[in-house]
Structures are given as C-alpha cells and as structure tokens.
Amino acid sequence: AQSVTQLGSHVSVSEGALVLLRCNYSSSVPPYLFWYVQYPNQGLQLLLKYTTGATLVKGINGFEAEFKKSETSFHLTKPSAHMSDAAEYFCAVSSTDSWGKLQFGAGTQVVVTP
Amino acid sequence: KAGVTQTPRYLIKTRGQQVTLSCSPISGHRSVSWYQQTPGQGLQFLFEYFSETQRNKGNFPGRFSGRQFSNSRSEMNVSTLELGDSALYLCASIGGPGNTEAFFGQGTRLTVV
Prior knowledge:
In chain A, 0% of the residues lie in helices and 56% in strands. By secondary structure, chain A is mainly beta. Chain A is globular. At the A-B interface, β4, β5 and β10 of A face β4, β5, β9 and β10 of B.
C-alpha cells in the first residue's frame, strides 16, 4: 500500500521568498513520485517527476524536488516565489507495479503576498 | 499534440439519475485513469483502464463504473446519483509501463441537486 502526507494545508510566502512544500510518502516498492499544480477550476499540471536516476529533479517554472529515500521525502522548492505561483500543489506516488494509479496527498494551498 | 479532452465540462443532474462522462486521452496513450476530487475527501482514485482492461479499482461503490474502447477513449458512468457524488471528475492519460507521466484533462464538474 502507498500513502502520501503533505505537511501544511496552507502556506503563505512573500513574493521573492523561498517556497518549500513538504511531502513524505510510504511505499512497499520503489516509488514513482510526482508534484502537480492546480489552478482554480482547472485540471492538474505536472510540475516534475522522479522515477529512477538522479535524485534532484528539476521541473517547470523554476521548481525542483529532491528524492531522499532514507527520509522517505520528496520536498518541492522554488528559490523565489512569483505571484503566479499561487495555486494548490499536490504530491503523488505510484509504483512500478501500479503505475496507472496515483495516490495523492491532501494538497497545499500556496498564497503569495506582495 | 492535442491534450486530454473531457466532456462535458459542466453537468447538473438530479438525484437518482445516471450520468456518463467521457475522456479522450493523448494520441498513442493506452492508459486512462479516473479520479474524484471533492473539498472534503481530496483526490481519490476511481479506476484505471489499460488496453481496454480494468487494471486497478478504487474503493467506490458499484454505482461507479467505467470502460475503455479500442481507440483508448474512456467513459465513466455513475448510476443512481446521490448528492455526495457532486465533485470534479478528472481523467488522466498515461502512455504505458515505460512512460508513466499522467497528464490530466480539465475535468468535468458534476453537480447533483
């Protein structure tokens, strides 16, 4: 079984400040890990993914995440927040034997203040 | 290349009715998954189809069903609608075992009154 925990349902950051969204997972098999962003009344847009290989993953819009197996974490960061980053962010996990089924975290709403 | 297309975008139904939602995946993708999104329960997996076969199923009652056609298009059906079925239903398109990124459609907003 797999599960995802996102710490903090709401995060407020100042424009230009670091964005850090935390995600911890549990999986009995090697995981595939993803971060998605959702704008109001929209679907989910893939920011980045980890499947195998390099543990530091770069995504779109300046986001990156690091897979830490020992900590079972996949935290998302962006060095400098922009107003357009205000949205809801979801961490998700699947696996090699269940690649078509994503287990999502509860989501983190990001507010960016001027 | 065209993205994932879900129709309709918005739907209002009455309790007890049934509804069918449609999803056309990205060309060449063979897997389609469905998710229900509500404020209280978040994003929950409904089912996944790969090459016309249901591979995985979430923990939803039998009123929720789906199918996939030979062209990979998928439909999901909800019978005997309840107020609690009001949600955003999202479809995800995945290439296959070696190409596991899920691309989502805009969703269908279902309101049951």
